[in-house]
């Protein structure tokens, strides 16, 4: 089993969106038995909460299943449990490193560094633009799946 963890700050806007989009992509490719997906936040303000209404609305718009998404905090142990840890922005990557007490983290990647638009995923908690975030997260997730398929020699 290949394990993928998406990480943002609050785990209510971007990383649960990425979790749902990526799980949907994995399912469409018939790889659900091989790739497990989760998300977490480096902050603990929203632990136990469902995603932000804007995230739920955009997922619903694209008919992507968004059940059973509850915020949790990223922990040091996640570093060993997951094969790929995907931060949404540079500050997430910094926070992951801090929480992991600077353990080796070669599997930690900023999502859009996998695309031709290497930059932070804008946080719709502040921008209010869930559509823009959806487009960028979708693009990043497509690239991530291609990378994992290539690296892990995955076939259906
Ligand atoms: P997220 O957005 O990291 O994409 O889930 C945020 C959600 C909540 C807060 C910050 C960012 N907050 O400060 O409560």
From TrEMBL:
Its EC number is 3.1.3.48. It catalyses: O-phospho-L-tyrosyl-[protein] + H2O = L-tyrosyl-[protein] + phosphate. Keywords: Hydrolase, Protein phosphatase. InterPro entries: LMW_PTPase (IPR050438), Ptyr_pPase (IPR023485), Ptyr_pPase_sf (IPR036196), Tyr_phospatase_low_mol_wt (IPR017867). The keyword Lipoprotein does not apply. Gene3D superfamilies: 3.40.50.2300. It is an enzyme of class 3 (hydrolase). Residues 2-147 form the Phosphotyrosine protein phosphatase I domain. Belongs to the low molecular weight phosphotyrosine protein phosphatase family. PANTHER family: LOW MOLECULAR WEIGHT PHOSPHOTYROSINE PROTEIN PHOSPHATASE (PTHR11717:SF7), LOW MOLECULAR WEIGHT PROTEIN TYROSINE PHOSPHATASE (PTHR11717). This is protein-tyrosine-phosphatase. It comes from Lederbergia ruris.
């Amino acid at each position: 089993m290949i394990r993928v963890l998406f990480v943002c700050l609050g785990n209510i806007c971007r990383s649960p969106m990425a979790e749902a989009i990526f799980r949907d992509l994995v399912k469409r490719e018939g790889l659900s038995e091989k790739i497990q997906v989760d998300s977490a936040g480096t902050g603990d303000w929203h632990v136990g909460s469902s995603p932000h209404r804007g995230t739920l609305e955009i997922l619903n718009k694209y008919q992507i299943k968004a059940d059973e998404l509850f915020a949790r905090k990223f922990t040091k142990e996640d570093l060993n449990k997951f094969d790929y840890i995907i931060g949404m922005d540079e500050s997430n990557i910094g926070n992951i490193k801090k929480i992991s007490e600077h353990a080796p983290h070669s599997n930690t990647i900023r999502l859009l560094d996998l695309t031709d638009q290497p930059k932070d995923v804008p946080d719709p908690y502040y921008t209010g633009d869930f559509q823009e975030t959806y487009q960028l997260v979708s693009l990043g997730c497509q690239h991530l799946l291609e990378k994992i398929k290539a690296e892990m020699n995955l076939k259906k």
